[in-house]
Design a protein that fits this description.
Elements: H1 6-19, H2 36-45, H3 49-56, H4 64-97, E1 103-104, H5 107-115, E2 126-129, H6 135-143, E3 148-152, E4 156-161, E5 166-171, H7 181-184, E6 193-197, E7 200-204, H8 207-220, H9 226-238, H10 244-254, H11 257-271, H12 277-285, H13 287-301, H14 307-320, H15 325-340, H16 349-370
Parallel strand pairs: 2-5
Antiparallel strand pairs: 1-2, 3-4, 4-5, 6-7
Helix pairs in contact: 1-2, 1-3, 3-4, 5-9, 8-9, 9-11, 10-11, 11-12, 11-13, 14-15, 14-16, 15-16
Amino acid sequence: MQTDAADEYRALLQCLRRALQLNGEPLAFPSAGFAWPCLIALADRHDVIPLLNAALRDSDSVPAQVRQRLESRCRTVIAHNLCLASELAELLEFFERSGIHAMPFKGPAWTKVLYGNLAYRQIRDLDILLDQSEIERACALLSERGYVVAKTQCKDIELENPGTGLHLELHWSACEPWHDKRVSGLKLWNAASTISLLNRRMPLPSAENIFFLLAIHGARHRWESLKWLCDIAAALGALPDLDWDVVLSQAGKMGRRRLVLLPLALVNQLFDLQLPSSVAKAIEQDAAVARLAAYIQQRHYAGPSTAVRRLIYCESMRIRMRESFFERLCLLAAFLFRQIKPNANDRLRPYRLFRIYGPATILKFARELMG
């Protein structure tokens, strides 16, 4: 997307509302001049091609070639999702026989929970939650199935199967300690219920923890994809027993209410989704949540930004998500220190930056980061 795509973004939101059954308004598009390639590219960028196709299925204004292209893409998505679902069922059975307690995270199992149909979500890989103490044994067992370790990180291990081309991530933490130390230590995947997928029962966390994990995952990626917000919207309909008082109370004890309020504010604004009164009141009480929601929406349809602007956006999101002014100040100070810290190639970096940009520019930069 090389230019602003605000019109196509609005059209995409209209389609997503319909696909999520949040709005039954009929979909009509201009018979000529509508930028269908731009709309499809935007949906592709946000990984919501199946939902776009579902919304347009009964629309008479969709050109035949566009419909054919969407149907072809969706057949590929369904085939891939079924392949992943089959592998997930076998892996969970494999782990169970070996005495390893594992739980699916996102992927086919959660797609079935949230959407009721594997065809409605683009799934890229498999994610499984388990205790860190069982990671080494799990990797040894997976090597017997042809998996090899591709990357080890501070919260997960990524594995690939060269034979099947499948990608698997084993998680022992919901996020990295550097991203949010308070949240990274939470274990939110104790089994509370099950779901049947391909004739196999798979464990699920509680409704509240499913929402927490979705919120943490989206926050890690700064809600840059509409797919993750569609997951939140779908969760509100698929998890009617979710106790919002418990969610707000747990988030409040950690000082992370914005973590759960921001995606709810976004689905309210984007999809006209009515929120529980306690949630709506909490959002009203924190004016920064609405500002953050607007900030994110600009990223949804804007063209590619420079490396500097992306850096500012990423750090600003991480800083502004914190409710405590002291936390925000500490994160800002740490970020600025990393930027001006001398290195082997630039020992005069602090002096040079202050001389070129001056204190006023640096202060303006800091205010932008703080929001």
